[in-house]
């Protein structure tokens, strides 16, 4: 293997629905979903305190109402994410909640990484699932296959075509570089 091919292999994005890639998506989905349930339960444990310390500080009206919205977004959205059911809307709701949390941290502590890191990591994970969906090992994929028997195989074929096009353009560039 040439150095160029080795470097290309290292940097080539994963664009195919392979078993290990999809397993990684499912594990990430389960871990962040399970961890987020805890946050929702904490909010409901003392909703008035959360409203006073977090929601009122950022200036949102009706702090108790928005505290319940945040808590139930986490308590409903996180299990949906774990199951891979309605993943994109659930992940978007959780992403929005984390954006508000990051805004709160910036208002209170400035750009202090120790306050921002956890909500930023959660936000990025939820943004990933908002954009990409749950993956093949999910209830969403089962429903999509049930609704349209060709949905998943057509998606896989499209990904394969993109990967072949990427490989073809890479090999053409490599041939041109050798000449």
Structure characterization notes:
The protein is an all-alpha fold. It has two domains: 19-138, no CATH class; 148-179. 82% of the residues lie in helices and 0% in strands. It contains eight helices and no strands. It has helices at residues 3-11, 19-45, 47-55, 63-83, 87-109, 113-132, 139-147, 151-178. Helix 2 (19-45) runs antiparallel to helix 4 (63-83) and helix 5 (87-109) packs antiparallel against helix 6 (113-132). The longest helix is centred in the last third of the chain and has 28 residues, at 151-178. Residues 157-162 have low confidence and may be disordered.
Break the fold down into its secondary structure elements and pairings.
Layout (H helix, E strand, L loop, with lengths): L2 H9 L7 H27 L1 H9 L7 H21 L3 H23 L3 H20 L6 H9 L3 H28 L1
Helix pairs in contact: 2-4, 3-4, 4-5, 5-6
Give helix % range: over 70%
Structural class: mainly alpha
Spatial gap, N to C terminus: 18 Å
Radius of gyration, CA atoms, in whole angstroms: 21 Å
Total number of distinct structural domains? 2
Overall 3D form: flat
Please name the defining characteristics of this protein.
mainly alpha, 0% strand, flat
């Amino acid at each position: 293997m040439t150095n160029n091919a080795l470097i290309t292999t290292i940097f080539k994005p994963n664009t195919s629905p392979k078993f290990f890639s999809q397993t990684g998506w499912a594990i990430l989905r389960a871990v962040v979903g399970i961890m987020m349930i805890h946050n929702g339960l904490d909010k409901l444990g003392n909703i008035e305190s959360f409203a006073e310390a977090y929601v009122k500080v950022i200036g949102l009206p009706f702090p108790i109402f928005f505290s319940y919205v945040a808590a139930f977004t986490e308590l409903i959205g996180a299990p949906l994410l774990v199951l891979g059911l309605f993943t994109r809307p659930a992940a978007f709701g959780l992403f929005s909640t984390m954006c508000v949390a990051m805004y709160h941290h910036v208002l209170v502590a400035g750009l202090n990484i120790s306050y921002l890191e956890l909500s930023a990591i959660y936000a990025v994970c939820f943004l990933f699932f908002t954009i990409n969906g749950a993956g093949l090992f999910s209830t969403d994929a089962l429903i999509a296959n049930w609704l349209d028997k060709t949905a998943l195989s057509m998606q896989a074929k499209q990904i394969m075509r993109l990967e072949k096009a990427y490989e073809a353009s890479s090999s053409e560039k490599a041939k041109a570089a050798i000449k």
